[in-house]
């Protein structure tokens, strides 16, 4: 996907302007000391990878970075060039080519970013985190709505679409290994961009799709897919983060600090106004706001916090072996790649320590009423179903956390289990069966029946 740029008229004057802009791009100066100059800061982001919104889509729409730059008072005029990409790979390519200063991407692409930067003499550093899930719930394997496949073992001999080198590919590999399958031998892996994979699943040329946010939730909401495997069953953290070119960070630490302050502001805005934030991201990306809220809502799959938590660094180290086995990287020095000095300074040591110690909220069920600017929370899935049953024409979306993993999912797309008087939701059928195996009398019930039982 090409970066979004504003085209200049094909005139000699415009060419001169373009030349001057190129000279001042990526932190360049028009004067020796930088005073009185115009500096362009180039930010690569993924608008539809919605767990990076606090460093991309939402941040851009709020204008916080530009405001922070304007408040520096260093005599420099700053311009921000926002470049939108479908995945992290082209962002890394542009960073190592000296054309992007700051980028955001998922954990596996971050490792490739670190490896490529070192290899090409343009080292990068992980400077903050955007959205994360400590159990791995940001990645999901889905199949077509009418597919007979109901477990990972059913994927043997099947065609599975994923983006090689992505966190979703890592989930696929680990999940298959735990199910006793060889990812290299027992499936035919199709290396495809998310949109291509979604089309392949719809056309029947792929039997399953393993992807990152927001594709699984989007396809489920649209009725084009159903969950086969909840990535949170791995119980391994997945996250997205911000990477910066080391040379840029050292040359312009105040600019990077301004970005991280702005990211924190965007994070605070998302936390305080989750519905409004979802609507803003939906407007900017074309994604349904209901899907955005599934991941980024008050009780969404992702938790947003710029602090680089030790659990996430530990997970990054475990991810290296997956990329090495796929021959996408060699060894990656994760400790050298992680650099929290800039975000720690941006937040202040006390606030940073508090964020490091903070724990994600325990997920609860939510109903988003039509026309409402906030959601309703429910103490139990049964209570949520009872409300939905009594207000069927007034519900925009309803979300329930998986009984085992805590991963939120659309209530009408969940697998429901009746266990005595309790009604329990699960993201995927295999997880539901595992619960039923340990609870005599429990049984799967259709969503319509669950609503009737609740009311």
From TrEMBL:
Signal peptide: 1-27
Gene3D superfamilies, per database record: Periplasmic binding protein-like II
SUPFAM superfamilies the UniProt entry points to: NosL/MerB-like (SSF160387), Periplasmic binding protein-like II (SSF53850)
Alphabetical UniProt keywords: Signal
One family name in Pfam for this protein: NMT1
UniProt superkingdom: Bacteria
Domain SsuA/THI5-like: 89-277
InterPro entries per UniProt: SsuA/THI5
The protein, known as: ABC transporter substrate-binding protein
Species classification: Bacteria, Bacillati, Actinomycetota, Actinomycetes, Kitasatosporales
């Amino acid at each position: 996907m090409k970066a979004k740029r504003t085209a200049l008229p094909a005139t000699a004057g415009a060419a001169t302007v373009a030349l001057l802009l190129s000279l001042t791009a990526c932190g360049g100066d028009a004067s020796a000391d930088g005073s009185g100059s115009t500096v362009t800061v180039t930010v690569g982001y993924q608008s539809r990878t919605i767990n990076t919104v606090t460093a991309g889509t939402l941040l851009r729409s709020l204008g916080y970075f530009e405001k922070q730059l304007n408040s520096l008072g260093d005599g420099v005029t700053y311009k921000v060039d926002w470049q939108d990409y479908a995945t992290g790979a082209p962002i890394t390519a542009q960073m190592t080519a000296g054309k992007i200063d700051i980028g955001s991407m998922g954990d596996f692409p971050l490792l490739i970013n670190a490896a490529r930067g070192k290899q090409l003499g343009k080292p990068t550093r992980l400077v903050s985190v955007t959205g994360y899930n400590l159990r791995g719930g940001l990645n999901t394997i889905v199949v077509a709505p009418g597919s007979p496949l109901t477990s990972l073992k059913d994927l043997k001999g099947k065609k599975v679409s994923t983006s090689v080198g992505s966190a979703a590919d890592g989930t696929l590999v680990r999940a298959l290994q735990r199910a006793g399958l060889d990812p290299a031998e027992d499936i035919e892996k199709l290396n495809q961009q998310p949109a291509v994979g979604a089309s392949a699943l719809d056309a029947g040329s792929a039997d399953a799709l393993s992807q990152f946010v927001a594709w699984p939730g989007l396809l489920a909401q649209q009725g084009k897919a159903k969950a086969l495997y909840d990535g949170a069953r791995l119980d391994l953290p997945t996250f997205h983060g911000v990477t910066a070119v080391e040379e840029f960070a050292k040359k312009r630490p105040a600019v990077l600090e301004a970005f991280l302050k702005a990211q924190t502001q965007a994070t605070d805005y998302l936390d305080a106004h989750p519905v409004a934030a979802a609507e803003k991201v939906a407007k900017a990306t074309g994604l349904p706001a209901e899907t955005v809220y599934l991941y980024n809502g008050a009780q969404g799959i992702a938790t947003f916090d710029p602090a680089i938590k030790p659990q996430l660094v530990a997970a990054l180290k475990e991810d290296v072996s997956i990329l090495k086995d796929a021959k996408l990287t060699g060894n990656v020095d994760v400790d050298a790649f992680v650099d929290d000095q800039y975000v720690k300074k941006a937040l202040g040591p006390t606030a940073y320590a508090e964020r490091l110690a903070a724990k994600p909220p325990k997920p609860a069920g939510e109903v988003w009423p039509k026309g409402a600017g906030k959601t309703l929370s429910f103490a139990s899935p049964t209570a949520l179903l009872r409300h939905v049953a009594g207000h069927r024409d007034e519900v925009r979306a309803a979300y329930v956390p998986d009984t085992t993993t805590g991963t939120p999912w659309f209530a009408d797309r969940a697998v429901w289990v009746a266990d005595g008087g309790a009604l329990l939701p699960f993201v995927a059928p295999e997880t539901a069966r595992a619960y039923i195996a340990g609870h005599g009398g429990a049984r799967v019930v259709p969503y319509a029946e669950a609503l009737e039982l609740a009311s």
